Amino acid sequence: MTSEHISRDNAVALGKVPAVTLGFWLIKIAATTLGETAGDAVTMSMNLGYLVGTTIFAAALIVALYFQIRAVRFHPLLFWTVIVATTTVGTTLADLFDRSLGIGYLGGSALLITLLGISLYTWHRSLGSVSITRLDTSKAECYYWVTILFSQTLGTALGDWVADPKTGWGLGYEGGALLFSGAPLVVIALYFWTKISRTALFWAAFILTRPLGATVGDLLDKPVASGGLALSRYTASAALIVCMLVLIYTFPQRAEKLEASGRTHG
Prior knowledge:
mainly alpha, two-stranded antiparallel ribbon
C-alpha cells in the first residue's frame, strides 16, 4: 500500500473507489442507463456499427482507466467517468457478440457469465479476496475493473435476452425493467436478514443493477414498434449526464476505507 493512501489526519487507509451508500447505487443505475443510450447513439444513431463503436469506447476506457489507476486518492468524477466508459464498452461489446457474431442473446449471456466467473475466481485465487476494501494494489485494481467490464457487458446481454420476444423471454423493455428493479430489493432483504457474505451481496447487486440500467435505457431510446419510447438518444444521454452530476454533488462522495492486510477476507 502506498503512503499516499493514508489519511494524514487519522491514519485511516483510504481507497480510490467510493463507499457503498444509497447515493452510490443511484449514480450507478444512472451511469448504466447512460451507457446504454450513449452506446446506442454511436452505433445506431451515427450508424458506426458495433465494431467501430466498441473501438471508440474502448479507447476512451483505456485513457480514463490509466488516470484512475495512476491516481493516489479517490476522485469522484474520474471514478464515475471510468464506470460510464465500462458501460458504453459493455453495451457495444455485448451487441457485437450477440448480433454481429451471431451467437444470440443466450449465447452471449452464457459466454459473459463464464468470463465474469473466471475473473472473480482468478481474482480471489490470486489475492485471497474480491472485496472493494482490499483494493490496495494496482493488481487488485486491475482485477476490479476487468470484473466490472465483464459485469457491465453481461448486463446488456441479459437485458436484451429478457426483453426480446423472438429468442428471449419476451418481457419487453418495460417488463425487463420491472423484473430487474425487483432484483436489488431481494439483495437488500438478504443484506438485512441473512448472514450472507457482504462482498458476495455487493457483487450480486452490482451485476444485477446493470441489466436494470440496460433495459431502462432501451425503453427510453428504442423505436415504439420495438416496445420503446423512441426518445432521442442524444437528448436522453445528455439528460442522464446531468442527472449523474446532480447525484454526484448531492450525495456525499467519500472514499471506501481499506481493511488492514492481516485480516481474513471473503
